[in-house]
């Protein structure tokens, strides 16, 4: 068993920061040497296998990205990162755990969808991983199987009020599934957009000759997000099922969450870096020499990037400060422009939806610390501690304390990261949605279960390092 001592750094948690040394023994954290600790004053440097000097740097729990879609079949193609490439990219960016979505659609058995996801991931991941279950087809079989998911460590499932004909569930189906969730402790995750309304608006735009990616944003109006968010909250209220709204981008949807939370309902929301930084005008409306006005396809995702003029982005930052939103995940769902996004040339509805960001979440959120949008502690809370609590992994993940997994990132606030095109990221994509972003910080060292997997811009991990995590029930409920 390898022992590692991280010395001289500032250990940051969701609730504070302190100068402390961290001792890793095998795959666990053995001790945090700060005032009050038994081992403080003992010189361990000679007795450990390795000493890492973290002077001037932050020592934080490894990032947890609770919303990724490796290899997701979508729009006639599949997300371009495999579990191997996507988890390696995540590791590069300081994320040591992902929670991906196993898929079940109409007519399929939930067990089969889940088994397939285990097959895709097993032995291929660089970091630990868990699964949520997508229930795309609510029927007697899926309703009967849902309670068994809890025993398998799949304690959350996602339903869709969008994408009619693909993953969509109507209110009756959602109600029935939520009743099962309320009985079993499963956390209901909701894609909250009114899909039938959006599809009519999209069809009308196409009929009027408006086929560019920009129109994806015009079709997916904020009212469709606010309305669906409200409806999901009411269905949660009727059934008593705790509810987690994924990828929130409209300020009006946040308002619905805030009202429900003020009433004491178990309702939570996540946003993603793209909804904090990017916009309808600048990205969906972009054009380039290579792609013309199809350039915006790089940023076609759902919910869509919203108008900066309407102030959604500022409101998302605010909601992260006030805890109206609790978490930041990426919704990592990468597609290449050539051969994937370009399926939608001439019809924005055919552009596979998704952005790749799994590698950049910690950096992008750290830039929010630099600009004063969030505190250092909130950064750790949003990207690691709350995801661990929300999805039943806290204690093992999300915190630096004795007994926790040895998932630790050493982050250098004096370093610099330029995010860009071509070879400067590790995701399997032919472009970057984040080209040109400059971060005043740097992921220096990434340790997963006691093993250094990223060290000074060198990758030392291997596929198969990561294992499936059987998650418990949410530890975040009111
Ligand atoms: O555009 C997105 N978000 N693609 C992934 C599927 C989903 O709805 O999360
Ligand atoms: Zn979604
Ligand atoms: Zn998603
Ligand atoms: Zn550095």
Write a brief structural summary:
InterPro entries: Amidohydro-rel, Hydantoinase/dihydroPyrase, Metal-dep_hydrolase_composite, Metal_Hydrolase, Metallo-dep_Hydrolases_sf. One of its GO terms (molecular function) is dihydropyrimidinase activity. With 478 residues, this protein is of the alpha/beta class.
List the helices and strands and how they pair.
Blueprint: E1 3-7, E2 10-12, E3 17-19, E4 21-25, E5 28-33, E6 50-53, E7 58-61, E8 63-68, E9 73-74, E10 77-78, H1 83-92, E11 95-104, H2 110-121, E12 128-135, H3 140-151, E13 156-160, H4 171-184, E14 187-191, H5 195-207, H6 214-219, H7 222-239, E15 243-245, H8 251-262, E16 267-271, H9 273-277, H10 280-284, H11 312-322, E17 327-328, H12 361-370, H13 376-390, E18 408-412, E19 417-419, E20 437-439, E21 442-448, E22 451-455, E23 458-459
Parallel strand pairs: 1-6, 2-7, 8-11, 11-12, 12-13, 13-14, 14-15, 15-16, 16-17
Antiparallel strand pairs: 1-4, 2-3, 4-5, 7-18, 9-10, 18-21, 19-20, 21-22, 22-23
Helix pairs in contact: 3-4, 4-7, 7-8
């Amino acid at each position: 068993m390898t022992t590692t001592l991280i010395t001289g750094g500032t250990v940051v948690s969701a609730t504070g920061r302190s100068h402390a040394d961290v001792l890793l023994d095998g795959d666990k954290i053995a001790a945090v040497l700060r005032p009050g600790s038994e081992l403080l004053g003992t010189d361990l440097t000679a007795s450990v296998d390795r000493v890492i000097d973290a002077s001037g740097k932050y020592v934080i729990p490894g990032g947890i990205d609770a919303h990724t879609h490796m290899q997701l079949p979508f729009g006639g193609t599949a997300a371009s990162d495999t579990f191997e490439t996507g988890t390696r990219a995540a590791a590069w960016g300081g994320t040591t755990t992902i929670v991906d979505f196993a898929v079940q659609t109409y007519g399929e058995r939930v067990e089969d969808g889940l088994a397939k996801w285990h097959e895709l991931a097993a032995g291929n991941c660089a970091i630990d991983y868990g699964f949520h279950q997508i229930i795309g087809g609510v029927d007697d079989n899926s309703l009967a199987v849902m309670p068994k998911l809890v025993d398998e460590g799949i304690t959350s499932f996602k339903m869709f009020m969008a994408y009619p004909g693909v993953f969509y569930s109507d209110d009756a189906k959602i109600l029935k599934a939520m009743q099962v969730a309320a009985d079993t402790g499963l956390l209901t995750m909701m894609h909250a957009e009114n899909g039938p309304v959006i599809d009519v608006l999209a069809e009308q735009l196409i009929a009027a000759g408006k086929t560019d990616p920009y129109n994806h944003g015009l079709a997916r109006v904020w009212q469709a997000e606010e309305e669906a968010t409200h409806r999901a909250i009411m269905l949660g209220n009727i059934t008593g099922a705790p509810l987690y709204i994924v990828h929130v981008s409209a300020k009006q949807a946040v308002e619905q969450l805030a009202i429900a939370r003020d009433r004491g309902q178990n309702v939570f929301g996540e946003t993603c870096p793209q909804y904090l930084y990017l916009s309808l005008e600048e990205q969906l409306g972009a054009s380039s020499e290579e792609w013309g006005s199809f350039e915006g396809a790089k940023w076609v995702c759902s919910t869509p990037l919203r108008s900066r003029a309407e102030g959604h982005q500022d409101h998302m930052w605010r909601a992260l400060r006030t805890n109206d939103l609790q978490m930041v995940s990426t919704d990592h769902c990468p597609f290449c422009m050539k051969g994937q996004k370009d399926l939608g040339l001439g019809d924005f509805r055919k552009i596979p939806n998704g952005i790749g960001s799994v590698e950049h979440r910690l950096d992008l959120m750290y830039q929010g610390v630099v600009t004063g949008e969030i505190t250092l502690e909130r950064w750790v809370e949003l990207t690691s501690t709350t995801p661990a609590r929300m999805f039943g992994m806290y204690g093992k993940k999300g915190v630096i304390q004795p007994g926790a997994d040895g998932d630790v990132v050493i982050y250098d606030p004096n370093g610099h990261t330029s995010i860009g095109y071509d070879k400067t990221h590790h995701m399997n994509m032919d472009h970057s949605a984040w080209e040109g972003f400059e971060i005043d910080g740097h992921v220096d060292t990434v340790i997963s279960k006691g093993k250094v997997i990223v060290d000074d811009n060198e990758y030392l991990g291997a596929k198969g390092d990561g294992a499936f995590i059987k998650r418990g029930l949410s530890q975040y409920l009111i």
